[in-house]
Design goal:
There is one protein chain. By secondary structure, the protein is of the alpha/beta class. The chain contains 18 helices and 9 strands. A hairpin with a 4-residue loop joins strand 8 and strand 9 (477-480). Helix 1 (16-28) packs across helix 5 and helix 1 crosses helix 6.
Length: 500
């Protein structure tokens, strides 16, 4: 009689032999434990008694005591029976089947990988049950987020528990020398992803893979304009050895894809011989010539390797998933994901099941952004708001202590850059017209008009300092002051208000 496939009970993947050989090695030579301690936990063993033996051995070894069949046996139940063997005989059998210390890592990898497979099976079972039983009013996206979170936790735990050898000073020095050689071969060009502003590239050598850069500022300081400018410049930038410009992912819980597209389109109209302000795109107040510029610009920028994740309530896990999807999509097109822009980080929701204060949430997101940069080997530019205490000071220029809601932002970041526009504050101090004070105010406005300070307050691998860029408020463009040619004609007021 043939048993229907659905009635066959499948045993979860495991290897009793690998577990026995590994435990025998630990009991025979305690040095083997330190080779696998970072990779394996007791719950990775399929056979519960094996997990208990591993846990007992580890406790003894960490306490600088001998873990042997005799010492471990004292902590196991006296009536233990494993396949007809009592505790002493079973531990002696494990010792007899031990592998060498050199081979213990390979056996640990087998045990660990099989444990991960069992975890994946468990997640799949839970997802199947949840899909059948979820309430009608629960959106599938919530279920997908929970599945993504569970799978990422398995992957992240596996990545962190992978066996890693200690790096020697010689290896570290050779790696540094290799990096220096690549920088030398760049012949003065930046070695990271361009900011799109030459002076920033000189001071920082670009945005580097594996590093988190925080771009912070108060509202209306131009943070989003800088972020869009960096994204557009990076999508046109070919680093050393790249055949095509790298791809860019913009995670925007704050703005829709249409709004971001409008900003990019407005900023690029300069290439078509004239400026069409972003406000005109939204209001429709433009003429036929402007529309022709917009159409020409859209055609010229077609195929720009920028992807946008516009989910308004995206979680940290969702951000990781978006980065993975973007990396895969760019890889199919022969590109690499070079930059992730997050606008802005405080808007990322806590992951399902997160319990903690707002401070804890922001700390978790900050740490997650750093982890995203490291695990995906991509440059991350995360925007952050500053606390209101800036407005209470006479000097409005931001400081590291102004970073909002969490000190871990400064700690996690490889670089912290503040966006600051003195014009924003000067403009709001306008005195009565036709007075001496008003004439002085006009001179002060002229001096700071279209000036955006990018203040590098922290840079782990370089100097701090301030560069001043040209900020075109109407089109939200950021350019080098040294690059200022005669701007295209536009019939707008002298002091246009920026759009944050």
């Amino acid at each position: 009689m043939t048993v229907p496939a659905r009635d066959i009970v499948q045993v979860e993947p495991h290897s009793i032999e690998a577990e026995q050989a590994l435990l025998g090695a630990v009991l025979m030579n305690n040095e083997a434990f330190w080779r696998v301690a970072e990779m394996l936990r007791p719950e990775h063993f399929f056979e519960p008694i094996h997990g208990r033996i591993y846990e007992l051995a580890g406790t003894l070894i960490r306490a600088a005591k001998l873990a042997s069949p005799i010492t471990v046996a004292q902590f196991l139940p006296a009536d233990l029976d494993v396949g007809g063997l009592n505790r002493a005989r079973y531990l002696a059998r494990l010792a007899a089947e031990a592998v060498t210390v050199a081979g213990v890592v390979d056996y640990a990898a087998v045990v660990h990988d099989l444990a991960m497979r069992r975890q994946i099976i468990c997640v799949a079972r839970d997802a199947l049950a949840a899909a059948y039983k979820s309430p009608v009013d629960q959106t599938p996206r919530l279920l997908l987020e929970e599945i993504e979170r569970s799978l990422y936790e398995i992957e992240d735990a596996g990545r962190r528990s992978g066996a890693r050898d200690l790096i020697t000073a010689d290896e570290a020095i050779v790696s540094a020398l290799d990096g220096a050689a690549k920088a030398y071969q760049a012949d003065g060009r930046i070695t990271g992803v361009t900011w799109g502003v030459k002076d920033m590239d000189v001071l920082t050598t670009g945005l580097h893979p594996g590093e988190l850069t925080i771009l912070a500022g108060r509202p209306s300081m131009g943070k989003s304009a800088v972020a869009v400018a960096v994204a557009q410049a990076a999508a046109r930038w070919k680093g050393p050895g790249d055949e095509l410009p790298g791809g860019v992912l913009v995670i925007s819980p704050e703005m829709t894809g249409q709004a971001l597209g409008g900003r990019m389109l407005s900023a690029d109209t300069r290439r078509a011989g004239g400026l069409v302000p972003y406000s005109s795109l939204r209001s429709g107040r433009f003429d036929a010539a402007d529309f022709d510029r917009l159409t020409e610009t859209a055609r010229a920028t077609e195929g720009t390797p920028i992807l946008i994740e516009e989910t308004p309530d995206i979680t940290l896990i969702g951000a990781f998933a978006a980065a993975r999807r973007a990396a895969l999509r760019f890889k199919r097109a022969g590109r690499r994901l070079s930059l992730v822009v997050v606008d802005y980080m405080q808007l990322l929701r806590p992951d399902p099941g997160f319990r903690g204060s707002r401070y804890d949430h922001v700390s978790e997101v900050s740490c997650g952004m750093k982890r995203l940069a490291r695990t995906e080997n991509v440059a991350v530019l995360a925007l952050s708001q500053l606390s209101r205490q800036v407005e209470q000071r006479e000097d409005k220029r931001p400081m590291l202590s102004d970073l909002r809601e969490s000190g871990s932002i400064e700690q996690d970041a490889d670089a912290v850059v503040f966006a600051y526009r003195d014009e924003y504050y000067v403009q709001r101090r306008e005195p009565k017209a036709n007075t001496e004070e008003h004439y002085r105010w006009q001179a002060e406005m002229a001096a700071c008009h279209c000036r955006l300070d990018l203040i590098i307050a922290k840079q782990r691998h370089g100097p701090v300092g301030t560069i001043t860029a040209h900020y075109e408020a109407a089109t939200n463009t950021v350019r080098d002051l040294s690059d200022m040619e005669q701007p295209p004609e536009r019939s707008r007021g002298l002091f246009d208000k920026g759009v944050e």
